[in-house]
Amino acid sequence: MAKALPVSPLAPARFPELPVIDGVRFATVEAGVRYAGRTDVMLAHLAPGSTVAGVFTRSSTRSAPVLDCQAKIGQHDDAGAAILVNSGNANAFTGKRGVEAVTAVTTEVARVLGLPESRVFTSSTGVIGEVLPHDRITAKIGELSQKLDAGGIEAAARAIMTTDTFPKGAQTEVEIDGKTVRIAGIAKGSGMIAPDMATMLVYIFTDAAADREVLQSMVSALNDQTFNCITVDSDTSTSDSLLMAATGTSGVRIDETSVGFMEALRRVMLDLAHQVVRDGEGATKFVEIAVTGASSDADARTHAMAIANSPLVKTAIAGEDANWGRIVMAVGKSGAPADRDTLSIWFGDILVANKGWVNPDYREEDAAAYMKGQELCIAVDLGLGGGKAHVWTCDLTHGYIDINADYRS
Amino acid sequence: MAKALPVSPLAPARFPELPVIDGVRFATVEAGVRYAGRTDVMLAHLAPGSTVAGVFTRSSTRSAPVLDCQAKIGQHDDAGAAILVNSGNANAFTGKRGVEAVTAVTTEVARVLGLPESRVFTSSTGVIGEVLPHDRITAKIGELSQKLDAGGIEAAARAIMTTDTFPKGAQTEVEIDGKTVRIAGIAKGSGMIAPDMATMLVYIFTDAAADREVLQSMVSALNDQTFNCITVDSDTSTSDSLLMAATGTSGVRIDETSVGFMEALRRVMLDLAHQVVRDGEGATKFVEIAVTGASSDADARTHAMAIANSPLVKTAIAGEDANWGRIVMAVGKSGAPADRDTLSIWFGDILVANKGWVNPDYREEDAAAYMKGQELCIAVDLGLGGGKAHVWTCDLTHGYIDINADYRS
């Protein structure tokens, strides 16, 4: 399980320089939850006055930490807050003892940092069905509290990795009322999820000031355009969590009308979402699926996800095969309305199929050359209406089988 | 494309002895539609008085032959009927020229056999988006009509193969009113479908006499318990077709109350459905997913299909990994109601998880030993109600990637 995987060929060249977000400090530690010789717990402390919003997996078998976060996320308190994340054990499907472990950790963090327990959020990622050895974590809270550092975000990104082959970070700045507002985020995830080894966790911080309700509505709306538009293998974690905190230290207050901030946040979330796809298990191609001309945006998304999740489409991409017949198949099976005779398909700029039949000018060698690229776009126009959607995915390769058919150990 | 694949390790030892069904005759020929050196067209002639029923893919991008069959299937005529199937070209996504090809073939079959065109059904399976070279087929109809033979069903099963690694046949007999009624069927299919190379086609024949409506209602009902309960890769063909013909030559008339006949037909259909899974692309394990205790049968089926289609579950099975966490994940993501704390999971007879937590008596080495078998059953009880479902699938292996990531050529 701790076997080092080669870094994804789609990884960014380096971890980005992330700005300090005043009011957030990070610490990491080697707690030995499961892994040896690496950090596996990260603590983020949020200054008094910070607001916190979140979105979580809709799985009906959600983990104990997710249920605890969901119970707390709608509350507010000016006392500050903390986020504690461990890798190596997901604390999922652990019954009553899962709840006990969450309580033990949040109680100790609250005690050491002088916070109400309702302001301590946790995530766990790693093997499922095993009781979280929470003593190993609580024993380190004092040490973590001593090490809190405003510059520790990259180390935090590394401590939350499981089968990720690179740490994931993104940032941006936006000018509002003549002042600079900063946003920085980290994420982990490599299968859309392999519940014994992976999951998608995202933590985003800004020095803007925002009411909890404003922050929540922005994050929920943008999540539907970013993290809910990626798929590696169609599987969904029991632990997926996104937490966003606004410390207010920039002195700039945002509200529902702050379109500049919202666009900046969207860029950060999309960047992190794309990085999760780029670290998709076994991925060798980063693929955008763009669907237009559907009867509605929802129908467009249904078609786009049917294409992105089709094993036959994903293996064709792995084989650099411009197999547009499989696109036709995926559209046909999606369940959303489609008309064979108004359907057009492009690989990049190459029009392959035009209104229900192969484009007479289409030359297979052109598409074959295009498919050798590492960044691909497959576009489909349904010819029915104005509905559109974008989703992002990767190919399905021998690497995916290697990673996921290996025995847990 | 014509590259020989090794025979599936899950294949039956041999093609079964299929009985002659009086009133049905078969012929096959090498027409060179796409493949060289093998038969690729089969013709079945049905005696006057035969009734025909059918079920077809629900894909919204259905092929021209499917649309033609659907238009004809509700009619009846005592003149007899014919089924003509070619492999090598699916005649799908071929626009108006697809319709012209179907018309050319059905017109010629009708002329040579002296049938109304409305009684000639066709299926095509193979590459999509290429115009069917129908002249190569129509040139052979005369020869086919000369070769019609009551004993030709096994040759017919071979002529319709594409990426199948073995021909598929099943049969049974049932005593009704002191007389023997025979049922024999053939099928092809190996991916749930790869539209450029595969698809699922099924042809079943009986010497019972049956009104068209009776036959149709039986086939539709049993299809939901058999062919609609298998999945190789969640992908759905543009061409899937099942045709059933009753010649009436046994002199035994069946109706809605003929439970013995219906059970016999169910066995034949399930046998053929299982053979399609056993020839699943790259399959090394045959897996039954049994879900009980769901809120309804429909919910049970949703859970069972979520498990059967999960790439993470399928790769774990390929790796002989009793990874029950992935079963929890698949149930959680299915969208049907589930309660983590009433969920139990078995691998074979081994109780792995009991009401939301790992069974304290569970020993991983027992499950690991079980997973080495070639025929597996994964059972899930939701603990919510009386809903239940069975589906059948196979594992996801390097072989699937090999077959489907290869370039079409």
Automatic annotation (TrEMBL), chains A, B:
GO molecular-function annotation terms? Answer: L-glutamate N-acetyltransferase activity; L-glutamate N-acetyltransferase activity, acting on acetyl-L-ornithine as donor
Q: Which GO terms describe its cellular component?
A: cytoplasm
Q: In which pathway does it act?
A: Amino-acid biosynthesis; L-arginine biosynthesis; N(2)-acetyl-L-ornithine from L-glutamate: step 1/4; Amino-acid biosynthesis; L-arginine biosynthesis; L-ornithine and N-acetyl-L-glutamate from L-glutamate and N(2)-acetyl-L-ornithine (cyclic): step 1/1
Q: Does the keyword Acyltransferase apply?
A: yes
Instruction: Note the subunit structure.
Output: Heterotetramer of two alpha and two beta chains.
Family recorded in the similarity comment: Belongs to the ArgJ family.
Q: What is this protein called?
A: Arginine biosynthesis bifunctional protein ArgJ
Please name the source species: Roseovarius nubinhibens (strain ATCC BAA-591 / DSM 15170 / ISM)
